[in-house]
Design goal:
This protein has about 375 residues and is of the alpha/beta class. It folds into 3 domains: about 1-70; about 105-285, Rossmann fold; about 300-375, Arc Repressor Mutant, subunit A (Orthogonal Bundle), CATH 1.10.10.10. It has helices spanning about 1-15, 20-30, 35, 40-45, 50-60, 60-70, 125-140, 155-165, 185-195, 210-220, 235-245, 265-270, 280-285, 300, 310-320, 325-335, 340-350, 365-375, and strands at about 75-80, 100-105, 115-120, 145, 170, 195-200, 225-230, 250-255, 275, 355, 360-365. A 9-stranded mixed beta sheet has the order 1-2-6-5-4-3-7-8-9, with helices on both faces. It has a two-stranded antiparallel ribbon with strand order 10-11. Strand 7, helix 11 (about 235-245) and strand 8 form a beta-alpha-beta unit. Helix 10 crosses helix 11 and helix 15 (about 310-320) packs across helix 16. The protein is elongated.
Amino acid sequence: MEHRTELAYWLALIKAPGVGPVAFQKLISKISPKDFFETDHALWQEINFSDRTRQWLASPDWDAVEQDLRWAEGEDCHILSFTDSNYPAILKEISDPPPILYVKGHLHCLNTPQLAIVGSRNASPLGLETAEAFAKQLARSGMGITSGLAMGIDGAAHRGALIAGGPTIAVTGTGLDRVYPTRHQELAERICETGAMLSEFAIGTPPQAEHFPRRNRIISGLSLGVMVVEAALRSGSLITARMALEQGREVFAIPGSIHHTLSKGCNNLLRQGAKLVESAADITEELGFYGSFPPQEAAETGPGNDFPLDKSYKKLLECVGYEPTGIDTVIARSGLTAESVCSMLLVLELHGMVETVAGGLYSQTGKRKNDERKHTRRADVPV
C-alpha cells in the first residue's frame, strides 16, 4: 500500500501540464513527489511554475491517477518510477529519461543488452527479410531487439526475435491499453509472452504525431546501438538515429542501391559516419557483445540453395540483382530472349531465389548470397 501511495504522487506530478521529463528530474533531485505535494506550496513559487501548472497541482486529477494504478493491477502490468530497481539502467543515462514507464510483459528483459532495429513502414520485401534475419541472429546470440511496433521494418524485427525465441521490446507512442497499429494486436500479444511492451504515455493515451519522436528517444535510449535497415531521406528512423548519436549510442546502417528511394537515408547515414554492416557479427563486435552464433538451420536457407545453377542461371541472377528490377531491364542486361528470361525467372522464383515485388519487378531474395558467404566466414552467419 505504501508503494502504491508513493507511486500515485509520481503519477500526479508527471501528469501536470508543463512538467516534462527534464523539469521532473530537476524537481525530484530536490524533493520527493510525495513531499512535494505535502509542502506548504512555497517550493512551487521558487520553481516558477505557470499559473496553469499551479492550478493543476493544487487539484490533481486523482481519477486519472487511479485509472493508471488499476491498470497496473492486471497480469504482467507494471508502472515503474525512475527510482524503481527494475527501471532500465541504460535509459537513465540519457538527458531526458521518462520519470514513469508503463510496462506490459517481463521486467527482466528491460536490462538485457539491446539493439534497436528501425526503418521504413513501407519497406521492400528484401528490407523486411533483412530486418528479420538480423533480428533472428542477434537474438540467438543473446541480444535483445528493440523497435517501435510500426508496420514494415519494426514488425519484421520483432518477428525475427520471436522466431529465435529471444526477448524483444516494443516501445509505443500510445497508452498500453491499446495497440497501434491495430493490425499488430496479435504481434503485441506474442511480444508480451517473452518480452515486453513499454510506454511513457498514460493509460488511455491515443496515437498522436508528436508522441512518436518522444517514443524514438526511448527506443535508442534503451539500446547499445541503432541499426537502420531502410529509410527515405525524410524519415522517422533518421530521427531515431540522430537521437542515438546525441545519446552516445552507435549507429549502424545497411547499404542499398543508389537507385532505391528507401536506400537514400541509410546511404546518407553511412556518408555521415554510421557503421556499414553486412552480418550480425559486425554489430556485436563493434558493441563488444560476444554472444554465440549457432549454425543456421537448413530450413532457413531455403530450397533455392539446393538448386544447381548453371552458367546461364548465374548470369541471369546477376542481371536481376538485389534491388527491384524490371523484366525489360533483365532482358537488356542478359542478352537473352524475352521467352527465355520469363521461363528462367519462373524457375528461380519457384526455388525461392528471386521474388516479385510491387509493380511487377523482380529481385533476388538474398538466400543465394547467404549460402555463398556462410562458407567463407566463421559461424556468425551473414544475414
